[in-house]
Each structure stands twice: as structure tokens, then as C-alpha cells.
# Entry
Amino acid sequence: MKRLLFTIAFATAVMFAAAPTAEAGSVMNEVYTKIRKKSPFHAVVKIERIKKPKLALGVCNVRGRVLRVEKTVNSEWRRLKEIIFGIRCKQPDAYVSPKDPVRWISTERLRRGTVVDAYLVPTGQTGTFKTSKFNMVTILRQTGDRGVRYGDSK
# Structure
């Protein structure tokens, strides 16, 4: 019971966090460094629910096509089961994939403060989109310009 109350209180505190503070930033940097060393992913994002904003660490792949949730604040920093999202951006100059009518945005354009919509993409079914429980993704930090557009040769 106490554990449940603590989880609810902690989730409520996270819900009202509009932006990461210095303390949260240091934690994010620590986890970000670990992610950076183990994978080519190089973007840290903030994911917000439709009604309940929730801080989370996610990564975009080098093609800017996939968003994966790595950690969430109210999951006690346990690694989540991999969740893959497609990133759809409303920017008019975003790259349009020839395979499906979705405007993909490359990591070259994913700058800090960019807000994109996230839709659940089942593995192996990239053409089938289901609205996920997360509806907005804000890029908090990105290093380098290694992103390439989906469909490019490299």
C-alpha cells in the first residue's frame, strides 16, 4: 500500500514538471551518456501524454525514423520493454517516405525544442499506425549532425 501511494505521489510530482530542472538534467545526462556509449542513438527526448505530462528518456535512431523509450521517471528507472514509435512531423519541409503517406523528419532537423507527434508502429508493420498513449515528443538534446533521411543510401 505504501509503495502504491509513493508511486502515485511520485507520478503526480512528475506530471507537474513542465521542464527538466538542473537535478533532472544531471540524471538525464548520466543516463544519456550510458545510452550514447552503447548505441548509435543520439537524441534525448521528453515525452508527454495527452492528459498527463510525463518525463521520459527516449532515443531517435540515426535515420530519425524510430523513437524508443529507454527509461521513464515513474518506473523506478527499470528498463522498459522496447517500444517503437514512428515520428511524424508537421513541418512542411520534412521528408516524405515513399512507402507510406507520413512525413518523416530526419535527425538533421530534430533540434532542441522541436515538437513532433508520436504514433505507435508495431515492429515489422511500419505501414500500420496506431495512436499511442504518448502524443507529443520534444527534443531536449542532440549531439552531432549524423542523421540521414529515410531512404538515403547511407
